[in-house]
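Recap from last week: sequence in, structure out.
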Amino acid sequence: MGIRVENVTKRYGEFQALEPINLEVKSGSLVALLGPSGSGKSTLLRVIAGLENADTGRIYISAQDATYKSVQDRQIGFVFQHYALFKHLTVRKNIAFALDLQKWPKERIKNRVDTLLELVQLSHLGDRYPSQLSGGQRQRVALARSLAIEPQVLLLDEPFGALDAKVRKDLRDWLRRLHDDVHVTTVFVTHDQEEAMEIADEIVVMSNGKIEQVGTPEEIYENPATPFVMSFIGAVNVLSPDDTWKAHHRDVPHHASQVFLRPHDIDILATPADGTLPAKIDYIIHLGWTIRLELTLENNGQEITAHINREQYKALDIHQGQIICLRAKLIRSFDNSARALPTPA
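Predicted structure tokens:
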């Protein structure tokens, strides 16, 4: 039930939406296509679904060549961002729609719809219409409808993008549990790094129509393959490797055009010590357990962000406008082949 994409390209006029793409999605896995707008993630998803035709390359689903198969013949469930439910049909009839088209026996349809309503925790709302549901409930109906035909593959295009933050969080947790129950091979598109990190088995990071890196959330975060991945996944300070940083981190390559420093990889000291740099506190922003410090380096005016926890904040007893000292625990840079070069403090 896996997916294999071989040398797939797609162009719209002069715009190259997909460079040659090669990707393997393991059977039963939950994979995120992650990237900014215009990165090609939705185009790739639509090519896999058969909603778009690739210019070159091939698509394999369950080891079968599906390149020229219709959407219906690919046995794919597709969920759009804006639900696409039939407003004039009840929840139950929305879920049963494709089964009616396939002329399933009525009793079998009823049993399948009952099972799906229970699966998405909407058994009590089967006779309501979409307009009588919340956004989160409508999205669960859309997911149930996509699962009705027992698809080999489930594809979701920014499924939670139209929902508020609290509902998005609840549905992310629910989708992860649902996937663990049904084990259908699932690929979802998102531009939300936290969403991808939270629920995906693997993340495919895309930029400018090509794949930058494929890996588990931990691999992507801890060992970014390119400057783009480093800057896109998680909070990071992108700094120029001027003499100030090179003096304190002698392993920073002279040819590096940028260095990358995570906000949590910065030690905050109230007084100077070996290997520290002075910085002014511009703002202190309370984010629950995390405190974000917006800083300006005294030596060169570079702006930088640091994260500390509440205990550290209370122990330091710092205030806005104060000059403090920073020590970088881990700086990363990249050589000309975009290979990550971790630099110890």
